[in-house]
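## retry 2 of 3
previous attempt timed out at serialization; input unchanged, resubmitting
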Amino acid sequence: MAAMALGSSALRALEVLLLLLPLLFSVDVCAAGTTTPPTIRSQRGKPNTNSKQKQGAPPAAPAVRALVQSTCNATTYYDLCVAALLSDPSSSTADLRGLCAIAVSAAATNASATAADLTNTTSSSSATAGPISTGSTAEPGTDGRVRVPAPLLQVCAAKYGEAREALLEARESVGEEAYDYAFVHVSAAAEYPAVCRTLFRRKRVAYPVDLAKREEGLEHLCTVAIDIITLLA
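## retry succeeded, writing output
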């Protein structure tokens, strides 16, 4: 009787095992199909090859300050405005009036540099236009440079000097919040170089190309300054 009971128990155990085999097999198959791939970890001092960041790329250029950008968007010459304002480190914290003063100062520096170059040219004994003269006249110099009457260059130097003084007055007016006066001074500064061009035409002397570029550069800087003054007025 005991032998028959033991045989019956063994048979039931075998039946249970046979029923569990398919279930165990399916669990193993699922586990094998969902293996997590290894993560590539970067080592100290080595780049992470699993990262999407481009290695060796130059750092991004600093963004233009919002106030500088919005101010220059309101001017006629955006790129020139941004360059002029960013040339002064104080533009990073300046308010609109401060930015206006920087723009006026940039124009004054431009006029001052041209006045100095013209003065240096007229001080030469040959009275031959230096690097600022690339126009043509009836009698070119032996070195390929054209001869420009010294009195013309002296007048031009004086006019650019007057433009500088007008711009310095404009900067003071901006500081005093006298924006109408600042507008008048900057407008006058933009017109002084035109007197120089008119004199060349009256004397029937070709207007030097480089001097024409300088006149245009000062005019554009004055335009930027006037545009910013208009925002303040």
